[in-house]
């Protein structure tokens, strides 16, 4: 039994290392690679994906899992193993089962198609021409359906796609939580729209990009993001990736005429980065050194970005610091006006720039469209029109071009259908965790007012970061929040915060 376990760990370490190499290529493609490098790169990523797939589907892993007594009924394997080892066995078992259901030629085809599609998407977005991207997306939807069929599902092919990003979550679960969200958010947005709008003109002044970057780095330091174990760079679409246990890369983008893009984007990515840097050392080099799910990952980024980064307490400390960096731009703007400005709620077209109240509506929009595309109720060619219709229903506004609508996100070009719901689930989990954090650290707000974020990070390290993938999202939510997934804490938090800001 111990010998089988050691062999399984060797395979796991090898796969983990290759995945980190994949991350290097992906990071380079998004950050540094020249435009015409794409064809060579797509060959490289396809070759590597094939190798990783072979490693992941090595029949020897299946034999070892058998020896360790892992099965659908008993994914944790033998009760003789210690707790960490059983959780590793469960993770390997799940990945092996998923991977062996996908044939190697399908996996390498997806890597090749999406690598090209990503660069076509960037061009289509620049030119705001959905037609350029359409044939690529058609191919991706077709491949996704093939993936769903191979992985298997009970009710809806979308279940199989979602499960890749949020284990154990079904279309029906998401529809339930999203209904709860919609019922809470739509009336709140309506009440806010009827209230007197806050003045956000301070956000629209010119903030030089180099000074924005310097201030973002100041905030990263306060968040205790360790620059000896990470970097901050620029990319079209901000993201975070781990190239190794002590090498976590954040990216952001700068808009000289709207500093929140970079500042809150950096805080958001730092939330992901702190998670990646916080895995228990005993999991390093294993697949348990990763997030419990994308939804849990997003709960960390959105907690730091919104619950901390857009709080009155946070700016009580950091606004005076920011004022010394940008004395002209912020002259005559007091703390309260600034706080309200960074929390202004207004339905807008671009998801990544949406406020925290309307944000989840952008996700519900994408969920509805993806569910229809995968359920063959909607053709790719009809997507721009369906997008406009959903946008009108949910947000009350309609994009005037494809770049501001259906082409705004990179996800579909990378083959990530079923990924979007995890963003809104992150809001939901995040406030469930925050409620528990407030119980454990009642003085949290006072600490934040003094710029002391150390106890918050320590709490997250202990309860969420360190745990990594040793818990499923369902287990983690129940262990940390003491309840199953619920949108209630998130909706209550928004109501309280915005009743105050908008004097509802
Ligand atoms: Mg994120």
Explain how this protein is built:
This protein is mainly α and 504 residues long. It folds into 2 domains: 2-163, no CATH class; 171-501, Orthogonal Bundle (Neurolysin, domain 3). It is 62% helix and 3% strand. It contains 20 helices and 3 strands. The chain has helices at 2-31, 38-56, 59-67, 83-100, 104-127, 130-151, 157-165, 171-194, 209-222, 260-277, 294-308, 312-325, 335-341, 359-374, 383-395, 421-440, 444-449, 454-465, 473-481, 488-501; strands at 230-234, 240-244, 247-252. A 3-stranded mixed beta sheet has the order 1-3-2. The longest helix is centred in the first third of the chain and has 30 residues, at 2-31. The protein is globular, with a radius of gyration of 23 Å. The termini are far apart. The relative contact order is 0.12. Bound molecules: magnesium ion.
Give a quick precis of the structure.
The chain is 62% helix and 3% strand. The termini are far apart.
List keywords for this structure.
504 residues; mainly alpha; Neurolysin, domain 3; 2 domains; three-stranded mixed beta sheet; 62% helix; binds magnesium ion
């Amino acid at each position: 039994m111990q010998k089988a376990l050691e062999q399984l760990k060797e395979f796991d370490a090898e796969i983990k290392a290759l995945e980190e190499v994949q991350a290097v290529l992906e990071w380079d493609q998004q950050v540094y690679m020249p435009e015409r490098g794409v064809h060579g790169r797509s060959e490289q990523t396809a070759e590597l994906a094939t190798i990783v797939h072979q490693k992941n589907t090595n029949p020897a892993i299946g034999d070892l899992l058998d020896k360790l007594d892992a099965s659908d009924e008993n994914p944790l394997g033998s009760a003789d193993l210690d707790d960490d080892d059983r959780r590793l066995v469960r993770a390997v078992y799940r990945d092996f089962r998923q991977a062996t259901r996908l044939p190697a030629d399908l996996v390498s085809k997806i890597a090749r198609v999406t690598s090209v599609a990503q660069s076509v998407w960037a061009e289509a977005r620049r030119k705001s021409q959905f037609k350029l991207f359409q044939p690529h997306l058609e191919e991706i939807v077709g491949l996704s359906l093939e993936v769903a069929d191979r992985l298997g599902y009970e009710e809806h092919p979308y279940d199989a796609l979602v499960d890749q990003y949020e284990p154990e979550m079904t279309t029906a679960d998401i529809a339930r939580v999203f209904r709860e969200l919609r019922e809470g958010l739509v009336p709140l947005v309506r009440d806010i729209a009827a209230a007197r709008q806050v003045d956000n003109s301070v956000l629209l002044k010119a903030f030089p990009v180099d000074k924005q970057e310097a201030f973002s780095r100041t905030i990263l330091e306060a968040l205790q993001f360790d620059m000896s174990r990470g970097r901050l760079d620029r990319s079209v679409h901000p993201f975070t990736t781990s190239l190794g246990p002590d090498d976590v890369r954040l990216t952001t983008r700068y808009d000289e005429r709207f500093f929140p893009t970079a500042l809150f984007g950096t805080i958001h990515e730092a939330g992901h980065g702190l998670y990646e840097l916080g895995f228990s050392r005993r999991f390093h080099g294993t697949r348990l050194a990763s997030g419990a799910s994308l939804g849990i990952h997003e709960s960390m980024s959105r907690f730091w970005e919104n619950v901390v980064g857009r709080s009155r307490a946070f700016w009580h400390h950091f606004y005076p610091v920011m004022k010394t960096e940008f004395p002209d731009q912020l002259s005559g703007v007091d703390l309260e006006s600034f706080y309200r400005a960074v929390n202004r709620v207004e339905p807008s077209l671009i998801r990544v720039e949406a406020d925290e109240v309307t944000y989840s509506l952008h996700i519900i929009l994408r969920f509805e469209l993806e569910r229809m595309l995968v359920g063959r109720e909607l053709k790719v060619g009809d997507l721009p029109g369906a997008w406009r219709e959903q946008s009108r229903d949910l947000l009350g506004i309609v994009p005037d071009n494809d770049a501001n609508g259906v082409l705004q996100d990179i996800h579909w070009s990378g083959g990530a259908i079923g990924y979007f719901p995890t963003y809104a689930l992150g809001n939901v989990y995040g406030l469930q965790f925050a409620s528990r954090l407030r119980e454990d650290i009642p003085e949290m707000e006072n600490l934040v007012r003094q710029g002391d974020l150390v106890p918050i990070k320590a709490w997250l390290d202990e309860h969420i970061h360190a745990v990594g993938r040793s818990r499923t999202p369902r287990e983690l939510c129940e262990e940390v929040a003491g309840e199953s997934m619920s949108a209630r804490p998130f909706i209550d938090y928004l109501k309280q915060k915005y009743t105050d800001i908008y004097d509802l």
